[in-house]
Write a structure and sequence with these properties.
Elements: E1 44-47, E2 72-78, E3 81-87, E4 101-110, E5 115-124, E6 136-139, E7 145-154, E8 160-169, E9 175-179, E10 185-186, E11 193-199, E12 204-211, E13 216-224, E14 229-234, E15 238-249, E16 252-254, E17 265-273, E18 278-282, E19 288-294, E20 300-305, E21 313-317, E22 324-326, E23 334-340, E24 346-352, E25 359-366, E26 374-379, E27 383-386, E28 392-397, E29 400-405
Antiparallel strand pairs: 1-29, 2-3, 3-4, 4-5, 6-7, 7-8, 8-9, 10-11, 11-12, 12-13, 14-15, 15-16, 15-17, 17-18, 19-20, 20-21, 21-22, 23-24, 24-25, 25-26, 27-28, 28-29
Length: about 400
């Protein structure tokens, strides 16, 4: 997952006591530390500059906001195959009147580091001066690589218009399918594709779920989202969303489609199964949450935020059961889940205590242990991902692809 997405996550989540979890390693954010932390030794190390990566690709911090679309990712297709991608085209215009023609290089490696496939994909990179989203890739359905196409085109009148599409590739980087539609999300377990067609200001939507390779529609249903629905996630067999009422007058909480700054709120996680059975879990007053996804057993993973701490809580909501609180980062840090196994048995987070720093912490947790499996310094402009079975993680950093074997918890 993209580490840049955690930049705005400070202030999320409610309090959690994990004082023994990562005390020593997270001190790396402190200006008082003078001794450099030793770099971990990867089991596999591949120099990507020999395969077309620019020497200065990691020399500067990611530019925000961007006007040129670039790619920077590492994605596991299965437990034995990992993909890495980057743009070989410039990240900015070399002259004001010369637009950038995008070219992304995709590489497939075995878990032992053998290069299995290579492909260059041209794309429209130049935003013509407009702000653009970073290029993205992730695991797709049926063991595919999902290469998300985002571009800004000029129409006949010279006006810019944004476009989005999805290109699915197999483990040999051959085309499986191209869908010129805006991808809403992928599901948490099988990485099915989710598209929505919405009406009446986004409240009434037709949801389409596609799975397989090539993808075929397996589900379609009508969903009328409440006016105060916030974060929404669709799974293989249901959906979940947050509804939040706001206190606009003393002791009077109302549902509204507008989020009012400074207003107190009361939020509820709402889950709905295929048979339309609904169950809810209310949050404490003032808290809200990001829904990570629906697990195979129907439970819901979420990231609860509140005023008590920056870090908050990572939780699993279960129907008619006590909410499970998972091991998480210390309360003074900011972070969000970047990668996880389908059952949330293992998950990883990029954590930081300073948005101005070029580095944070890459921390891998096992759900059964309060002690992290990995807690290391990691560059903000790097990328990392857990393997689907949680036995390894791969990182794309400092011009190299690294693969690490993870220990079993003690």
């Amino acid at each position: 997952m993209d580490l840049n997405r955690m930049n705005g996550s400070c202030g999320k989540l409610g309090a959690i006591i994990v004082s023994l979890v990562v005390v020593g390693g997270l001190a790396g954010c402190s200006g008082a530390q003078t001794k450099k932390e030793p770099e971990p030794t990867p089991d596999v190390r591949i120099d990507l500059t020999a395969l077309g990566l620019a020497q200065d690709f990691f020399s500067i911090r990611d530019a925000v906001p961007r006007t040129i679309i670039g790619y920077r990712f590492v994605v596991w297709l299965n437990r034995d195959v990992v993909a890495v991608g980057f743009n070989t085209s410039p990240s900015s215009r070399v002259a004001p009147d010369r637009k950038v023609d995008g070219l992304a290089r995709l590489l497939i490696f075995s878990v032992s580091g053998v290069l299995k496939a290579k492909r260059d994909i041209p794309y429209l990179a130049d935003g013509y001066g407009e702000l653009v989203a970073e290029g993205e890739a992730r695991a797709g359905p049926g063991g595919t690589l999902l290469f998300r196409i985002q571009s800004v085109n000029l129409d006949k009148e010279g006006r810019s218009e944004s476009k989005s599409g999805v290109l699915l590739l197999d483990a040999n980087l051959q085309d499986i399918a191209r869908l010129d539609r805006f991808l809403e999300q992928t599901t948490f377990v099988d990485h099915d594709l989710v598209f929505q067609e919405c009406f009446t200001w986004g409240r009434s939507c037709t949801c389409h779920v596609l799975d397989g390779s090539p993808p075929r529609q397996k589900k379609q249903w009508q969903q009328d989202w409440p006016i105060d629905a916030r974060d929404r996630k669709i799974g293989e067999h249901g959906l979940a969303y947050m509804v939040c009422q706001q206190e606009l007058r003393p002791n009077e909480y109302v549902s509204t489609g507008i989020v009012y700054a400074g207003a107190s709120q009361r939020c509820t996680m709402t889950a709905e199964s295929e048979d339309r059975i609904i169950w809810r879990v209310p949050l404490r007053d003032g808290a809200t949450a990001e829904i990570l996804g629906l697990l195979a057993d129907g439970s819901v993973a979420g990231h609860v935020s509140g005023k008590e701490s920056k870090a908050g809580q990572l939780v699993i909501w279960k129907k008619d059961q006590t909410t499970e609180v998972l091991p998480w980062i210390p309360k003074d840090f900011c972070g969000s889940v970047q990668s996880a196994t389908a059952d949330m048995s293992r998950y990883a987070v990029f954590a930081t205590c300073d948005d101005r720093s070029d580095n944070g912490r890459w921390i891998v947790f096992d759900r059964k242990s309060q002690t992290p499996l990995v807690n290391r310094s990691f560059p903000r402009n790097g990328r990392a991902a857990l393997s689907p079975d949680g036995s390894r993680y791969a990182s794309f950093e400092a011009g190299e692809l690294h693969i690490y074997l993870l220990p079993t918890p003690s």
